[in-house]
Amino acid sequence: MITPTLTSPLRDTRVTARVGRVLGIAIAVCFVTGLISHLHQHPVGWLPIPPSPAWGYRVTQGLHVATGLASIPLVLVKLFTVYPRLFETPAVRSVGHALERGSIAVLVASMLFELTSGVANIAQWYPFHFFFPTAHYAVAWALVGSLLVHLAVKAPVIAEALRKRLSEPTEEGLTRRGLLVATGAAVVTLTAVTVGQTVPGLRRLTLLAPRRPDIGPQGLPVNKTATAAGVRTTAVAADYALAVDGPTPLRLSVADLGALPQHEVELPITCVEGWSASAPWGGVRLADVLDRAGVAPDAAIRLTSLQQGGLYGSSTMTAEQARHDDTLLALRVRGEVLALDHGYPVRLIAPNRPGVLQTKWLTRIEVV
Ligand SMILES: Nc1nc2c(c(=O)[nH]1)N[C@H]1C(S)=C(S)[C@@H](COP(=O)(O)O)O[C@H]1N2
Ligand SMILES: [Mo]
User: Which of 44, 53, 233, 340 is deepest in the core (most CB within 10 A)?
Assistant: First the structure.
């Protein structure tokens, strides 16, 4: 039997349990908001997402990314306090012990996978060859499953560790309390320098987030440019028209769209990467256009972009989302004609909807 040699008074269940308690809360919020966000992006028929509150996805995805980032220092410190024990031998002593260690192996591996893949996605870096949302979502279940096993197995140890006072065994070096304070400071700092990507008041602190939500044409970031989408010529073509399929098929030129009743709504673009920004959008109600085409009021629809290929070249919406008063075929933002990179001549903007589904450079609307 090898007893871990890397000992430190900081490696104590009282420290581990206290860090773990905060980490557990962060993971719970991250998991629940992640499930909601996943449901937004990959809708299922039996649980349709309502169009209100308009800020719903902004809050769930903002919290998801913020709690995921806050977990990074917590996981690192928690691992620091226990890692010698991960290499204990004999590796397996009994069936119960095997289960416990197995669940920790899955927990550590899935946690590290979720954090690294999540950060890579925020940075739009795809070194991996799997489809990010599917893998990130599947591994989240493994993480939560193994976490529940871990909590059940360790419940008595955790309860006892949290009950005991955080006494300091020596006067030298970093104290246990010092480590907890430093960990808290790291979490607060990391949150402060990233959360401005979605919280307007904290924008100027946004040092570490890859995007500032107010930098870009017309004061909004751009994820996919018109050049990247290959629509530079088609979007400005003289014969451009938006096709609307229905009992009365329509072909609406930019001038036709401009001649319909115009509305303005204040709505956020919320990217799954964690940034969001609100802006006043102007244009035509999707419901008005669908009515003119004679589309049934309860029909779900698909909106397709001029962009050829690509994952986000089209999106679908429920009838409830499509008929909401704030769901616009936007022609303008902040009173200006949409920049080509924001979807000129016309894009979708709808309440409580992930950015990936706010399809730009629309060319066709059809019933699904
Ligand atoms: N056709 C098309 N529309 C698209 C995309 C795309 O790749 N192609 N990207 C989406 C994503 S991921 C986001 S976050 C928003 C961003 O809109 P913006 O570039 O106007 O800020 O557009 C969405 N609309
Ligand atoms: Mo996005």
Answer: 340
